[in-house]
## 1
Amino acid sequence: MSLIKELFGRSPFGPLVEHTKKVHECVRLVRPLNDAAIRGDYEELHRLQDRVSKHEYEADRIKHEIREHLPRRYLLPVDRMDLHTFLHSQDSIADSVEDFAVLLTIRNTKIHPEIAEELTAFVDQIVEVGNTLMAAAEELEDLAEASFSGAESNSVLERIAGLGEGEWKADRMERRLSRHIYDLEQELDPVTILFYEKMLSSLSAIANAAENTGDLLRCMIVKG
């Protein structure tokens, strides 16, 4: 261990990137979950839910390790409380994906064919928002080396610039899809309609968490 590391402890940004990657693995499973639900492949849904739970658990372990071992003597380029808040917000993305996955396994609910294409488009928009944030967050270690300034920070700011618009598009798609669901209420029982609404809500929570995390990352860069 170098003298610098002995004096100031271990940088938390490497583990933060590892946490980001675990959260990203959860986000990547949202589209396969949706596709399995549309096919009515309930066995595959359970397999995918197990994978999400595993990734979410591993992300939780990394989160706890970061919180317990965040070195107090390490000269951080950002405020420690901002790091804790960012970590919590990022973790909520994985939690929201797990909520979606668990929901799909609670009840064997068929997806009405008339909403399948629109639902998939909504899911793709949610995943796009999540992927945009994850791609930016994976630059945390490089950002730290650049003291959250310079060309690296500008690059990350450009990556997350569209998060707000992406989340806004997802909100509009959710509202349209919700109206479409209620247009079919003569064909759907009330429990199924409620289930669909819970699906949309859990998906929307993923995009909301990604946008919030992006805002926190932007604030750290601006403060830096």
## 2
Amino acid sequence: MKRFLIWSLVFGIVAAAGAAGFSSLRASRRGANGAYRTATARRGDVTSVVTSTGTVQPVLNVQVGSFVSGPVKKVYVDFNSKVKKDELLAEIDPRLYEAALAHEQAGLLHAQADKVRVEALLEQARLDYGRAVQLKPANAIAQTDLDAYIANRKSLKAQVDLAAAAIEECKANLATAKANLEYCKITSPRDGIVTDRKVDPGQTVAAAFQTPTMFVVAPDLDKKVFVYASVDEADIGRIRDAQKSHQPVSFVVDAYPNDVFHGRITQVRLNPTTVQNVVTYTVIVEAPNPKMKLIPGLTANLTFQVDRHTQVLTIPNAALRFRPTVDQVRPQDRTVLEGENLDGEITSSAASRSLDEIAAAGGNRNRKIVWIPDGERLAALKVVTGLNDKQCSEILSDNLKEGQEVVVGKKTAGP
């Protein structure tokens, strides 16, 4: 009986050791293959975007200056004042220009009176000439006297023309004086909002060599604004395509972080900006501004929608980035991990490749590999991707079906 108990105990120990070894081997095999996180290929929307930063600016900045010089008599508007077209903004002291206007008015009266005087002399010369002509047949007047009457009449007629020209000259001077007097009143050329005021009452404005800026008026600032975005040269081709297809633009500003503003691309400027060998292009985005939240100078973080595909087969981008180890995949798929290049990436030997080879490699950039569970190992599946965003990619090939699982990563060990 004692021997039976001893053999039973030995048999139990051996069985327990065998079970433990089998469990350890199975766990070790699962550890080699890995416990994977998977995702399901499903239908959804994919939006390709380009991000950028920019600055909010008025659609137009109208600089209002003074054509005449003199002390500023009055200023009628301030910063942020809403003004209408031809509304009075400021006034230059008009006394010198009023005196100049009075001087030109007096000059015009003098010229008009001088013309009347010369016309009277011309009329007298015509009468004298007529009487001389009547006396000529009777030889009652010498020929020289008759010639003098003729010359006097022509001279006075020329003086009448000179007087008429002097009147026109005085009228022009008078118009100039009136214009200078009107320029003393600084008015707004457009409806808008005063964004800058550079003068105060009593300040002297000198307009001898260049027109000084007194105010800056932003027309239609309460209707729309421009966002000047700086876009990298690598993305400018996609931005131009987005402009042609009328893709929307959304952006946020730090002043209102919870508000999303929307606009549209109105212009892609061809003038590049190069800073430390980085080339960027200016893209103009027009956005409505009825609530006046977008004020000049705000920094905007923009998202340009380049393209959008709806209800297409998609997988997470993590599935395209996942790479297992050699012992975790089927033997027939190990060549994929041993150097087969499906992405068409140009390696360090690109200098020795022809342009056709480089172009062909570029055409293969959308060929990717995803891994799908196949028993206790993983199988490689070649797919063709389309549009992608930060989260998922569109699948164009037919070998991946909707609802099929793809590996996106390894599971972390539990507690």
## 3
Amino acid sequence: MKKLSYLLLAQAILFSACSKGPHYVITGNIKGADSLTFLLQERVSGQYVTLDSAVARKGIFKMKGGPVRYPEMVILNAKNTRDRTSFYLENSEITITGSLDSLDAAKITGSRTQDEYNAFRDSNKPLSEKYSKLNEDFQFARQNNDTARVSAIRKEAAGIDKEMIQLQKDFVKNHPASYVTPYILAGLSMDMDGSELELYLNGLDTAVANTPLIKELKERAGKMKTVSVGQKAPDFTLNDPEGKQVSLYSKVGSKLLLIDFWAGWCGPCRRENPNVVRIYKEFSKKGFDVFGVSLDRRRDEWVQAINDDHLTWTQVSDLQEWDNAAARLYAVNSIPANFLLDQNGTIIARDLRGDELYNKVKEVVGR
């Protein structure tokens, strides 16, 4: 009997010690959410992974867990709805207060990292509001065919966009130990080359540099440097729509070859396709060629998009969407994306669209 008592006491002590260790407690008070299930999720490799769940009673729910190794961005999602909000989860007592119909605007307290993010967002607010107002003006000007105003707004918006990017870069530079920094830098990395990204990564505090997201960015920076302007384009082989294997270097040799990453489901890609078709028609006989790499998952949708957009050049894919082998090799994480190669397979430009792509092709092969 004494042995049993000692065992129960040891278990109680162990449980007490664990409950007092690093952990998080999330308390929610969401109006209009009675008997609704809330999911605590994180995004991993493009998929939502559920960490915890709780049913709200008269809008009130609680979640406990941890420890969390690093503060990380998570999503609180009202199950089977589009209502959600995001915040930084860390080992602390976090309170989420708001209404279901405006969950994205819920007030979140108790997370120091979230407070840092809120301060950054507030500093960016004047520019964001100005940008939103410009977008409204742009839509009005376009509806009224005011081309002069449309042009002026685009120029002004580009200036604001530049200011917003600089604000983010300044935050990364001035907050090397903040766990907000990895997420801001991840967004900035979309428009950075490998060397610039590496420069910012090297300035981070050791603890932040060891987070999974920064480790991913370091790997991405290394890949980006191998596909930067002036580098030899890495070769790859994928199947065409008929299942025949085609390598990139079987097409290298023309004056210019455009590796065009796109997908049938990608709206911006489909809007850019007519421009690529126009350039191809004008310069294909002068040495310009295109090698299309699709990030589609369904062959029928891929082929339909090829036919609908009149893409008559070589197309390849492994139908793995974002796991596309060539996209991973070229560090592509947004589309449309492209790389312009000379006749030796050297990358001479990347991510040119619209008139920029036309002018570059004309400069090289149009003479």
